[in-house]
Amino acid sequence: MAWESILQQQSAWSAERAEELRLSSEDALTLYDDAPLHQLMSAAHNRRIAMHGPSKVTYLVDRNINYTNVCTINCQFCSFYRPPGHDETYTQSLEEISGRIAALEEIGGVRILMQGGVNPELPFEWYETLLSHIRTNHPSIAIDCFSPI
Questions:
Q1: How many domains does the chain have?
Q2: Are residues 47 and 66 in the same domain?
Q3: E strand or H helix at 135, and its extent?
Q4: Residue 89: which domain range?
Q5: Are 7 and 15 in contact (CB under 8 A)?
Q6: Are residues 87 and 29 in the same domain?
Q7: Do 115 and 138 belong together in one domain?
């Protein structure tokens, strides 16, 4: 389906038709690849007004947490990492990470993005413990993390 048709169909949005008019992955990709940005922005603005009225704007408050900068991959685009043994390496403790999440919660934050290096000193269980700790101590926080290499 052409991007014009997708946006036209989406302009008929209503609460009663919300599920029916949910974008498919294919339609979202078409819009991303082909729709002019100004027309996509206009459609998003109109959808927001239809969903929430003209005086309400929604957004997410989130935080990026880098749990370690120790990495052995040496990606050419990354200026963030430090090799094991470098004097600028760090790995945050569960308490440090939890403190950053608590600070986010205090200002109404709802989501974290966690990224870090490929640290050979962190076993798989460290990541399981980290996620369990966050889920237990910060159950209202959505977690996005561990991008693929």
A1: 2
A2: no
A3: helix 124-137
A4: 62-145
A5: no
A6: no
A7: yes
What per-residue confidence (pLDDT) applies to 149? Answer: 67
Q: Which two tokens stand for residue 136?
A: 């237990």
Is 28 within the bounds of a domain?
yes
Closest by CA to 64, choosing from 51, 53, 80, is 80
Please state, in angstroms and rounded to a whole number, the distance separating the CA atoms of residues 41 and 39: 5
Same domain, 37 and 82: no
The answer to the question of residue 57 being in a domain is: no
Residue 114, both tokens: 């966690």
- Reported as a single tens digit per residue, the pLDDT across 14-44 is 777 877 778 889 998 999 999 999 999 998 8
Strand order in the sheet with 62-66: 62-66, 111-115, 142-145
Q: What are the DSSP calls for 87-127, one per residue?
A: TT--B--HHHHHHHHHHHHHTT--EEEEE----TTS-HHHH
Average pLDDT over residues 113-134: 96
Q: What is the pLDDT of residue 103?
A: 98
Cα–Cα distance, 74 to 84 (Å, whole number): 11
User: Is there a domain that residue 126 lies in?
Assistant: yes
Radius of gyration of the chain from its Cα atoms, rounded to whole angstroms: 21
- State the DSSP code for 22: P
